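Shipment paperwork, digital attachment
Item: protein structure file
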Amino acid sequence: MKSVLFCIMILLLSSGVAQPSVFFPADGTGLTPELEELLRGLPPDQDKINIGDMVFRVSQLERSGFSGTPWTDGIVYYQFDANVMPDDQTNWEIAAHEWECVAGLTFIEGTGAGNFIHVFDGSGNWSDVGMIGGQQEMSIFNWGQIFIIAHEIGHALGAGHEHQRSDRDPYVSINSSNIQGDFLDQFDVITMTLFGDYDFDSVMHYDACAFSIDCPPGFTCDCTNYSITALPPYEDWQDLMGQREYISELDAYGMAQRYGPTLNNVPIAICQPYSDYADDNCCITVNVDDIDNGSYDPDGDDEIESLCITAVDGNPVGCEQMIQLCGVGIYMVTLTITDDCDETSSCDASVEVIDITPPVIDVELNRYVLWPPNHKMVDIYATVTVEDNCDPAPTFVLTSVSSNEPDNGHGDGNTEGDIQGAEIGMPDAEFQLRSERAGGGDGRIYTIVYTATDESGNTAEFTAEVRVPHDHSGWAMASVGYIDDGTDFDYTQEKFVLVIPSTAAEYEDDGSGYPVLVREAFDASQLAVQEVYVGNTAGAVRPVKSELLDVDGNGMTDLAVFYPVAQVVRIKELSLSNLGMDGEIAYDLRTDGPVGLHYCLAGMDYRVDSIFALGEPVPLIDLTPPSAPEDFLEEGTELLTKSQVPEASTITSVRPNPFNPATTIGFYLKVAGQVTLRVYDSRGKLVRILVNESLPSGFHDVRWDGRDRQGQAVAAGVYLAQLNASEVVVTRKMAVLK
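Attachment content:
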């Protein structure tokens, strides 16, 4: 389909070339009988005649029928009336520019040589048709609708209504009975020579309800009685005809036939390459300014409507001033410039995301301290974690394993091969180190270095150390999870507890009245809990839990560390499992040493030789003096009611509290099992064992009559009830009154 613009203008036709829809008198007598009758009835002094929103000079009609004279050289002068507001003037100029974008037209404010359009704020929308000479009029009412204004400017340029074409009958039906009587003439056929096809999409076409009897006089609206009906097979245009949103393609083509091609120049997009370093998410931000290298509009940069990023590697991204590119590599980013005529050009910029961030490597060893120094090889397991901002699968290798002492140096037991199984340059996470050190010095230090590498070649190292120290004698107390004499575990318990006490500094008189420091203070609360090991060269176990409390009642905070019984039992078994010549286990070959305790504070290493030689276990109770009466429950109150099921075994109530002479201790067991309920005095001395048996899960009550193991009434004061169930140890305070 070629053009569908229905114009009131005279065209020069080229032989053999299809032209847009136009109408003009083929022989100078193109008036319909209705129009001839209309002219005969006009007063002699009337020079103009209105047909809808089109105004014609009578002299033109009589001389040459409907003809819209083109504007000379496509230059259209205009002048605004004083009653046109500045914003309305701007809207008119925007509408005029829409025609400049499609044809060789130039609108210039002013009167020029005397032929110009006088634009005023009127009570309706109408315009003289074509250039009539001198001052011609254009009235605008709908200033806020750009393409209603463009419709009237189309008339001033010579265009008529599309629905008044003489060849309209195959396309539309004009329903005269549905049209307001005063506006019937706006639907009359104007007999002219036509070129091209009918255009329902033309901005010069009326809509289907224009001046329908369903609408207020002189208006269009939503209607059921159509003034124009689209005929088959064009029914889809019924609700689309009469658009005022744009100049159609065929409107543009037709106007260009009359005035020549547009004078608007296509804007020029110019790109430049860009690169940046990736951030922590392996992304860079690309702004328009980063890739623009002087894009411009030949008609002036004030005509640039937008300059934006429109695609990445050919994939549209809208029209963005800034985008993110994620992932190492080179991307083709499309920059597009658009002018106010919607003409565009694009260029592609090469954008590179560069990764210079090294990977992050973390190494955790199963052992950082080897003891005792018994010359045995100890298995070292490394857990290596490598993360990288860009590479999802960075690699690592074991770079080196070294010792600060010779392999067979003086005083280290005359052994060789202290480092075994380490595959340097490979992702090796398992090897062996000998637990030995020289007799003098500060102890041996093994240095292990791992190197991580990402796909961009960035590297990072992690250095870990394993020490074989000269230990100082440490101290600890056995607590929960031991049998009564402390020489073995209570195998009904899942965990056992060791207490590392805090001690004050000790001084002695030097004989002359001056104190001399003989032992520095030791603050167990400052220990790094995860480096308080139980084990030997056969293996080591870290704590699963810790608590800070005053166990020995000296007013200082002690550290209670909890360990799984089963894991330490396994180390104990491995320490004794050296085969004799006959294949039987020879328990006298204890080369791994006893299961001990090792911890470090302020660079000083401490070792307790055996956790089964600490003596009678101490109760795990906090002897910190109560700071206020609210530490005790009010008489008759409970910690939990039996309607509230706890999440773990606990003491639920002590009632009454304080009491004299007896109280009832309520407790809840999450699971069935061996249970002890003991009473201690404020110094941690055992007073009475109230329960020592296997009980079912659920709520239980036990009465304490205020007497000790010998049946004697206890003195007034603070006492502690301690529940030791399979998974927890819980202590509550009680007060005996006299």
